[in-house]
Amino acid sequence: LSFSFSLSLSLLCSTLPQVKVTNNNQPDPTTKPIYRYTMSVFAWGGNNHGALGIGAEDKLKQNTPILLESLRATRILSVACGDAHNLAVTELGDVWVWGRGKEGQHGDGEQRVFVNMPQRVWALRAERVVQVACGHFHCLALTNNGQVYQWGRLYRFVDQGKQAYFSRTISLTGMEKDRRSKMLERSRDAYYSGDMDEEEIRQSNQLTNFGAFSPYVQNTPALVESLLDKKVVGVFGGYSYSFFTTDTGQCYSYGYNDRCQLGL
Question: Is residue 64 pLDDT above 70, yes or no?
Fold first, then answer.
């Protein structure tokens, strides 16, 4: 959930009319109604950047849960919240997005400030998505065959003055012993003893971790190619980093590591 607004999935039941008549053209009292169940989305809290998805630009906050009418007829399986954007995935594997889009969160090739109503991420229409996750300004989508897409504000890896996409994942196991020891030592110094201030942590990350990072906008969903040889079963988003779990029980992380949040 976001710090300023909340989403909730609720099971709603509606009755479909079913009329059966007798020989006297009277309703048959033995006729039973047909019930239809849907998972609907409710939202409440702050409406910054249209985060509630209710289509009201002038409404600053919603104190009580309100139904997202635009998704009423859609069976939603799960939702995810970012800083001011949201994702929802349906039982058919379609992905919907609303809220802030300045960093490409809408996944449609644009960088609109926001949309205040859910819109479908058409770039993923050929995929069956089973789970979505949000970071502060980025989005993740996991497909039924274990592949991962990402979009929004991501980071480039800068090493010795050369820029390249930081596209490889780092496993939390199997790392070289010396490198692992140095990272653990740095994490201990930074968080247990408190001997390092913010500037020292930043410099340490650039010298002893992955180098420097530069943000960029990916405004359409892109495959995480370094995970193509693995079957991912879970995706999780942090501020500017991501975690993945596989069907073999391994955990992978990548992204910004200014507070050693990758756990390396």
Answer: yes
